[in-house]
Design brief:
The chain is mostly helical. The protein has a single domain, classed as MetI-like fold, CATH 1.10.3720.10. α1 packs across α12. The chain is 68% helix and 0% strand. The chain contains 12 helices and no strands. The relative contact order is 0.12. It is a multi-pass membrane protein.
C-alpha cells in the first residue's frame, strides 16, 4: 500500500482555507450611463434645440413659403438678383480678407508665444487677452474703432498733428470695405491664436531633434515636418474664421449701418426694415448663409480630424 502524497512544504497549503475575499462595490456597466449623467448634459441639448435646431428648421420652412404660408420658390429665385448676389460677394470678400489676415497674423503670434523662446509670462498673457478679445464684438467694438480710426479718432488726430499724415486723404474710411475688414481683424486674430496654439503644442520636440541629428536645417524641418503637420489645422482654422466673419452682423451694422451692402445687413433690412420688408426673402437669405457657414464648418471639422490623426 503506497503512502498518500504529502503537500509540498515550500508552497501554499491547498487545503488551508483562503482569507476573506476583498469586498468589491457594484459593477458599473461601462456601456450605460446614469440619469445624472444625462441630466448634466441636458442644458446643452435644450439650448441647442431651442436656439439652433428649431430656428434653423423654421428658417428653412419659411424660405419656401410666401406671406400667406403657401409653398413657393420665388424667394430662392430672388437670391439670384444682382443686388443680393452683390451682397453675398461683398460678404465673401470681407470674410476671406479678414480670415486670411487673421489666420496669418494669429499663427505668427501663436508660434512666437509657443516656440519663440520668449519670456514665460508672454504666453499666458497672450492667451488671456485672446480669450477676451475674441468675444469682443458688436456695438462696443464698432464704437472703439470709430473712436480710434474715425475722422476725429485718436489715431487719426495724432497722425495728422504729429506726423502730418491725413489718413482720410488717402481715401480710407472706417465705413468702407477696408475699415470693416480691419475691425473684424480685432477678433479674428485672437480667435486664430486660441485655435492654432494646441496644434503648435502638438509638434513634438523629438521630431525637431531627429531632424537636427540627421543634419537637417530649420527650413527643412518646417518644409518637410512642421508645415505638413500644421497645414490641416491652419486651413481648418482659416475656414472657421471665414464662417465667423460671414455670420457677423452686430459689428457691421453698428459700424457701417446701411452704407455697406453685405448679407447680414440686407437680411436685417428684409426682416426688420420699414422699406425693404420681405420676411420670407430674409429667411431665404438666412438659408444661404447657413449653407455657406455650414460648408465652412464642415470643412473645419474634417480638417481638424485629419490633423489629429496626423499628430497621432
Amino acid at each position: 500500500m503506497s503512502a498518500s502524497p504529502q503537500p509540498d512544504a515550500s508552497g501554499p497549503d491547498l487545503l488551508t482555507p483562503a482569507g476573506p475575499a476583498p469586498k468589491s462595490g457594484p459593477v458599473r456597466d461601462s456601456s450605460g450611463a446614469s440619469w445624472l449623467t444625462y441630466a448634466g448634459v441636458a442644458p446643452f441639448f435644450v439650448f441647442a434645440l431651442l436656439f439652433l435646431l428649431l430656428p434653423t428648421v423654421f428658417l428653412m420652412i419659411g424660405a419656401f413659403q410666401d406671406a400667406q404660408g403657401h409653398f413657393t420658390l420665388v424667394n430662392i429665385r430672388e437670391l439670384f438678383q444682382p443686388a443680393v448676389l452683390e451682397a453675398y460677394w461683398i460678404s465673401v470678400k470681407v470674410s476671406v480678407a479678414s480670415a486670411t489676415g487673421g489666420a496669418i497674423i494669429g499663427a505668427l503670434l501663436a508660434w512666437a508665444a509657443v516656440h519663440g523662446r520668449l519670456p514665460a509670462w508672454i504666453r499666458p498673457t497672450l492667451m488671456t487677452f485672446s480669450g477676451v478679445a475674441s468675444n469682443f464684438a458688436g456695438v462696443p467694438l464698432a464704437f472703439a474703432f470709430i473712436s480710434t480710426l474715425g475722422r476725429v479718432g485718436l489715431v487719426t488726430v495724432l497722425a495728422r498733428k504729429y506726423l502730418g499724415f491725413n489718413l482720410y486723404s488717402t481715401g480710407f474710411s472706417i465705413l468702407s470695405f477696408l475699415g470693416l475688414t480691419i475691425t473684424y481683424l480685432y477678433f479674428q486674430i485672437p480667435l486664430m491664436v486660441l485655435i492654432i496654439t494646441p496644434a503648435l503644442d502638438g509638434l513634438k520636440r523629438e521630431w525637431r531633434e531627429a531632424c537636427d541629428c540627421l543634419g537637417g536645417t530649420a527650413g527643412q524641418y518646417w518644409r518637410y515636418v512642421g508645415f505638413p503637420v500644421l497645414w490641416p489645422s491652419f486651413l481648418g482654422a482659416a475656414l472657421l474664421l471665414f464662417a465667423n466673419a460671414f455670420g457677423a452682423v452686430a459689428t457691421a451694422y453698428a459700424l457701417t449701418g446701411s452704407s455697406l451692402n453685405i448679407v447680414p445687413i440686407l437680411l436685417f433690412a428684409q426682416i426688420r426694415g420699414d422699406v425693404l420688408h420681405n420676411q420670407n426673402l430674409g429667411y431665404a437669405l438666412a438659408l444661404g448663409m447657413i449653407v455657406v457657414t455650414g460648408l465652412s464648418n464642415g470643412g473645419y471639422i474634417w480638417l481638424r480630424a485629419r490633423a489629429e490623426r496626423g499628430r497621432r
